[in-house]
Amino acid sequence: MGDIGAAGFSLNNLALAAYIRADLPRALAYSRESVAVFRDLSNQPSLAEALTTQGRVLGAAGDLEAALASLVEALSLSWAAGPRSIVAVSLEAMATLAIAQSMAAHAVKLCAAATALRSSIRAPLPPYNAAEYGRTLRRARDLLSDLEFADAWTMGMTLPVDQIVGTRR
Prior knowledge:
The protein is an all-alpha fold. The chain contains nine helices and no strands.
């Protein structure tokens, strides 16, 4: 079993499973190990995936600053090296952080950008992400008027991703 990369993916999958079960201490430990493995291997696409998981876990644990740092790094790596599906997951995770900070319009823009990207690369929203994505959009609808929501969605569907990520309003 000497494949270190496979161990990194296994750790990331264990982190996701623990995250889904809301076992955040275990999820954080697994995700940190996965990130370390892929940093050591200099495997940028896999590191982006592991950082996205770590960002989601850190956000759920309430460390929004560290979560955003992980997600921004993941987004940067996946934008440069792929896979584009990780860009979408990173945007969706950033939307969850934005809604936790009551930045509803920004959350909607991030969700819309992820949706546009998923459509262009034909990568549907994975079932394990759908519930969180739905909660984020429902919360945004509660905080915004219909017009504000529609305007934010339109902006997210049309603006370049770097502009959306760079404007946290």
